[in-house]
Design goal:
Its cofactor is heme. Belongs to the cytochrome P450 family. This is Cytochrome P450. With 528 residues, this protein is an alpha+beta fold. The protein is 53% helix and 8% strand. It is built from 23 helices and 13 strands. Helix 1 crosses helix 2, helix 14 runs antiparallel to helix 15 and helix 16 crosses helix 19. The structure holds protoporphyrin IX containing FE (HEM). Protoporphyrin IX containing FE (HEM) binds next to helix 15, helix 16 and helix 23.
Length: 528
């Protein structure tokens, strides 16, 4: 090519490049619109970011410098699968206040539980919870867990709250008993008779999911019958909760991923569980549900009654929401709590011997009544201690600081609308409350010591109870805690009372991965 032709070609290319660039900058082409939108987004995010850094004055608070610049840091911590230990290490290094994001502070002040998680709704849930909303078509419907507006939340909670009280949960005890009975039969047949090692952790998950199905709509999901997660619901729920935990650190990402209106890039849906729930609601509404026995009302029945008594609040969508809360908030959390009790008891042979002899002496029968099991001080101590060292939610329960800000016990000030919170895993290890061995599983701490007066013991337990944060606190406290505890006490009593159980590999520690819930692997046991 001659020099003239080359210059002409370069000139043409330059002109066309110049045109598209101008077009892009003026927003006259699709590329231009996209470039402009991205630039605008970058500018807005940067301005917000700079304002947060400059005006919130949080830069004075301790924490990793990178956390002051971006939420990607806490997103990364959650994705490591070891969130709770990373956070504990940060608190050990920086003290009770750790800055986790540009506008996020994690606190370890048990004395502030009542202030921050009270019943006055001064500290509102943050947008961490938005992504837990139910998405139906284009509509995003907050459920009881994710609702951030206190009035709307109270309206949702009121029609069903009474059915989860400590006395009301006893009405579903017969449904729970049926499932525990099946668990024992399966363990006898599949593991005791064959002397094969049993992955007890897996069976506890099958059992709690079946139990939640039974308590919700009088029919289990068949996980124990099939001996596996036959429809993938359990693993899908795990994935969904891992997604919620990570995306909650940077909630806007949810609109680009799971709630993306053009192409959804989220965790898989709970297809089969949704189908089962809808089928049950439909057959119950038609009055031809073969599994339902009116003498033992289940939760679906209670929710349908709530539709009659509170027609302005409860419609079919809300019934679905209530059912899904039972499934999603109640199965994994309860399973990991039961596993935690079993693991710590089995890892500590003295504790195991003591619990077994206590249970043996009482002749509780094949399945103890909840009232009997709850009244056993050593079982109670084991359950409470396992929940303390291994709380089912090991994530910061995020709230916005109120308009007047928050003054910490040491005088430091947290400005309004900062995301503040406490994490049960950290609070449950605070040495000011739990003494000099907070990391040790020691059920005896819940019992009166030989040299301790009754009044001193009562004072100590009062302090423990006041800072007990494993189920949250105040008006947003866990709705299903009594249901979860009923299952936990009964199953642990049934397993330890009935079998001679040993860890197949007693020297091996289990693997725990934590995003929202600390999930465990490696509770493989020999049952006799
Ligand atoms: C051992 C098992 C469980 C643990 C450790 C647990 C833990 C928690 C925690 C820590 C919260 C407070 C979250 C926050 O304030 O940010 C919570 C809330 C909640 N939990 Fe549970 N939970 C368990 C079982 C259940 C069960 C069986 C249900 C079934 C109904 C349930 C339903 C709920 C609901 C509806 C809320 C939201 C309450 C509200 O905002 O009004 N949970 N849970």
């Amino acid at each position: 090519m001659g020099q003239g032709a080359q210059a002409e070609s370069t000139g043409t290319w330059y002109a066309s490049y110049n045109d598209s660039l101008r077009g892009a900058l003026l927003g006259q082409t699709w590329t231009g619109l996209a470039v402009n939108a991205i630039c605008l987004a970058v500018v807005l995010v940067s301005v917000q970011w700079a304002c947060e850094i400059i005006f919130t004055r949080l830069w004075r608070l301790p924490g990793p410098p990178i956390a002051g610049l971006t939420n990607w840091y806490r997103f990364y911590l959650v994705r490591t699968g070891d969130y709770q230990h990373h956070l504990k290490a940060l608190h050990d290094k920086h003290g009770p206040v750790v800055r986790l994001g540009p506008n996020v502070v994690d606190l370890d002040y048990p004395e502030l539980v009542k202030t921050m998680y009270g019943t006055d709704n001064k500290y509102l849930k943050t947008d961490f919870y938005h992504n837990n909303s139910t998405k139906i078509g284009w509509n995003i419907i907050p459920n009881m867990f994710s609702q951030t507006d206190p009035e709307a939340h109270a309206r949702m909670r009121k029609p069903v709250a009474k059915h989860y009280s400590s006395s009301a949960v006893l009405t579903v005890e017969p449904l729970v008993d049926k499932v525990i009975d099946q668990l024992l039969e399966h363990l006898d047949e599949r593991f005791v008779k064959t002397a094969k090692p049993c992955d007890l952790g897996e069976w506890i998950a099958f059992c709690t999911w079946d139990m939640v199905g039974a308590a919700s709509f009088s029919e289990d999901f068949g996980y124990m019958a099939q001996g596996k997660d036959h429809d993938g619901t359990i693993s899908t729920a795990d994935k969904a909760l891992d997604y919620f935990a990570a995306i909650g650190q940077m909630p806007f990402l949810d609109y680009l991923l799971d709630k993306n209106p053009i192409k959804r890039i989220g965790p898989p849906h709970l297809g089969n569980a949704t189908r089962v729930a809808i089928e049950h609601i439909a057959t119950r509404a038609r009055g031809n549900d073969p599994n339902f026995d009116p003498k033992t009302p289940d939760y679906l029945q209670r929710f349908m009654e709530a539709k009659e008594t509170h027609p302005d609040i409860v419609d079919d969508g809300m019934i679905m929401n209530y059912v899904f809360i039972n499934l999603l908030a109640g199965s994994d959390t309860t399973a990991l709590t039961i596993r935690a009790v079993m693991y710590y008891v089995l890892k500590n042979p003295d504790v195991y011997r003591k619990l077994k002899s206590d249970l043996g002496e009482l002749e509780l029968g094949r399945i103890a009544q909840y009232s009997e099991a709850k009244a056993l001080p050593y079982l109670d101590a084991c359950v409470r201690e396992a929940i303390r060292v291994h709380p089912g939610v090991s994530m910061m329960l995020e709230r916005y600081a109120p308009a007047e800000g928050l003054t910490l016990p040491d005088g430091r000030y947290i400005p309004p609308f900062t995301k503040v919170g406490m994490n049960p895993f950290i609070i449950n290890r605070n040495p000011r409350i739990w003494g000099d061995d907070p990391n040790t599983f020691r059920p005896e701490r819940w019992l009166q010591q030989e040299d301790e007066s009754s009044s001193a013991f009562a004072e100590r337990i009062k302090l423990f109870n006041a800072t007990d944060f494993s189920f949250g606190a105040g008006s947003r406290m866990c709705l299903g805690r009594h249901l979860a505890l009923l299952q936990t006490y009964k199953i642990v009593a049934a397993l330890v009372g009935r079998y001679d159980i040993r860890l197949t590999n007693p020297d091996r520690d289990w693997e725990v991965t934590c995003s929202w819930f600390p999930r465990q692997k490696g509770l493989v046991c020999d049952l006799r």
